[in-house]
Amino acid sequence: MSRAMNFYAMKAIYNFEMARTRRTLMQSIISPVISTSLYFVVFGAAIGSRIPEIEGVPYGAFIVPGLIMLSLLTQSVTNASFGIYFPRFTGTIYEVLSAPVSYMEIVCAYVGAAATKSIILGVIMLGTAALFVPLRIEHPIWMIFFLVLTAVTFSLLGFIIGIWADGFEKLQLVPLLIITPLTFLGGSFYSTSILPPFWRAVTLFNPVVYLISGFRWSFYGLADVSVAVSLGMTLLFLAIFLAVVAWMFKTGYRLKS
């Protein structure tokens, strides 16, 4: 007979992770916002004034969804990976595992906290972008949906990395060497429609293309790939990461030793 969800335990873990964010406000929120603001100044104002509109959208406004997605992906992965790695590093994860808390509740708490941080950051960056460039959001419900879905999906990836990593340097390996390059090459600063046919076909193997395309569509109604395909790919990533997390807990991968 299945027991009820232990919401008290989930809330305790969630609140602990959110409190850690408040203690490191400069690193968690302020630093990413400042970095992204510099992108708006350099690309939006300085370079954007020399680039014509892209499909009727000023260049400075066109890059906003890509920049938000860049920060959302990297921060979701980083927040979740550090969140679960530190309990492993200090040994407190064994207290959590021995408590009357299910694996699902542990994942929901850690991933929920990481996704919340990333969503808050994304909203702040959206407000910051509005100070620099004229924004419009044609599909606000879909924008929120893509924002939340992406944050949860890549927080799951970060959770996986936090369990897999056996050192601090590995925590930064995926965000710096994989996520960031794929985001830059995934249409953050340009539309893939301007690429030659061969390279446009190559970019379709970049999973971040689908994330940025769907998110940009929610702003301007512009998409490099079908919105349905973008949504389907994001849900596919979510399903894959959920399956990997389930396998890790089932086998005790790097959790029972």
UniProtKB/TrEMBL annotation:
Q: Which residues form the ABC transmembrane type-2 domain?
A: 23-252
Q: Does the keyword Cell membrane apply?
A: yes
Please tell me one Gene Ontology term that the record gives under cellular component.
Answer: ATP-binding cassette (ABC) transporter complex
Gene Ontology molecular function terms on file: ABC-type transporter activity
Membrane topology listed for this record: Multi-pass membrane protein
Where in the cell is the protein located?
Answer: Cell inner membrane; Membrane
Provide the primary localization. Answer: membrane
Q: Which UniProt keywords apply?
A: Cell membrane, Membrane, Transmembrane, Transmembrane helix, Transport
UniProt KW Transferase keyword: no
- Any stretches that span the bilayer, and where are they? 28-47, 59-86, 144-165, 171-191, 198-219, 225-249
* Classification via PANTHER family: INNER MEMBRANE TRANSPORT PERMEASE YADH-RELATED (PTHR43332), TRANSPORT PERMEASE PROTEIN (PTHR43332:SF1)
The entry assigns this protein to a family as follows: Belongs to the ABC-2 integral membrane protein family.
> Any idea what this protein is called?
Transport permease protein
Source organism (scientific name): Pandoraea sputorum
